[in-house]
Amino acid sequence: MAPNGKSKKAATPSFEEVEAKRVDMLKSLTAVAEAMEAATSTLRAYLQTAPDALPEPVAETAAAGKKRKAEEKRKNKDPNAPKRPVTGYLAYSKDQMPILKQEHPDMPHQALVGLITERWKAMGEEEKKASLGYD
After folding, report:
1. Do the Cβ atoms of 128 and 121 come closer than 8 Å?
2. Over the stretch 93-131, which tens digit does the pLDDT of each residue have?
3. Number of domains in the chain
4. Which of 11, 42, 128, 135 is the most buried (most CB within 10 A)?
5. pLDDT attached to residue 113
6. Does residue 103 share a domain with residue 71?
7. Contacts of 55 (CB under 8 A, 6+ apart)
8. Which residues form the domain of 34?
């Protein structure tokens, strides 16, 4: 702040100063582009002499690693382990599907599942327990 309490504004650079900075940046970027072109041509020449020098692409390596981890998880699962119990909704759905198929033979399967879901949601807790035999 200035001694009089007012903030001091930075001086706006002149056109010549801005133009000089732009020219400097352009020279720097040109030098970077030339260096990248030189590196690219060197790499191309190297690959022509040794085509198997590069490892397989990183994306393929990462995908293979994920696949291998998934296979390891599956291998570690015990095939004789007990299955999880059936949920109330699934048991109700299994009981109701044949009944609804007889009542609505032309209705598509997805619509029948939607109907079962609506009925299940409309049921109260006591009705749900009674329909599953948990009286």
Report:
1. no
2. 998 999 999 999 999 999 999 999 999 999 888 888 877
3. 2
4. 128
5. 93
6. no
7. 61
8. 15-76
For 23-37, write each residue's pLDDT tens digit. Answer: 999 889 899 999 999
CATH of the domain at 101: 1.10.30.10
Structure tokens at 5: 């309490």
Name residue 52's amino acid: D
- DSSP string covering 13-26, please? PPHHHHHHHHHHHH
Same domain flag for 26 and 62: yes
Dist. CA 48–CA 42, nearest whole Å: 10
Q: Of 31, 50, 76, which marks where a domain is finished? A: 76
CA distance 102 to 100: 5
Q: Answer whether 105's CB lies under 8 Å from 113's CB.
A: no
Structural domain includes residue 4: no
